Amino acid sequence: MPIILSVASGKGGAGKSMVSSNLGLLLAKRGYRVTLVDLDTGGANLHVLFGHFHPQVTLTDFLNRKIKTLQEAVQPLSVHANLSLISGTGETLLTSNLPHPKKKRLLNHLRKLEGDIVLVDVGAGTHFHTLDFFLFANGHLTVATPDRGDT
Question: Chain-centre distance of CA 47, in angstroms?
Fold first, then answer.
């Protein structure tokens, strides 16, 4: 069973996806088999950071049961042999209000992913799903930026 780490922030634009992608690459270079999972239901973009503009399989395929297991959504990334990605969904309405059984199925399948580390990029804010995805993990990383409030 992999170690699950979650990355979140209280607001959008703090650099959460950039931190997730770079941390995943660093861990892969250190010899860990890492799967990045984009659970940012409001703006999934990890695939774009790696140049995958049209992912073949996404989280939506798993949620809609087009594929049976979440492992089937794992796509290798060419930047490193130990790094792979589960692309987020572009269907915000589908994933922003996940019914409890779908969320439970997703969390159960996250635990079953192959590899050493699953790095989950969760959405910004404090929505219930965001908090559930964040707190579900074994370890937590919060990304923040200074905001002086004088804009």
Answer: 10
- Is 115 among the domain residues? no
Closest CA to 85 of 38, 39, 43, 17: 38
Residue 13 lies in a domain: yes
Residue 16 falls inside a structural domain = yes
pLDDT tens profile 60-110:
899 889 999 999 999 999 999 999 999 987 665 555 677 888 889 999 999
For residue 34, what is the enclosing H or E element?
Answer: strand 34-39
- Give CA–CA dist 27/151, Å, rounded: 37
Instruction: Find residue 5's DSSP bridge partners.
Output: 119, 139
Range of the domain at 26: 8-57+84-89+120-127+134-143
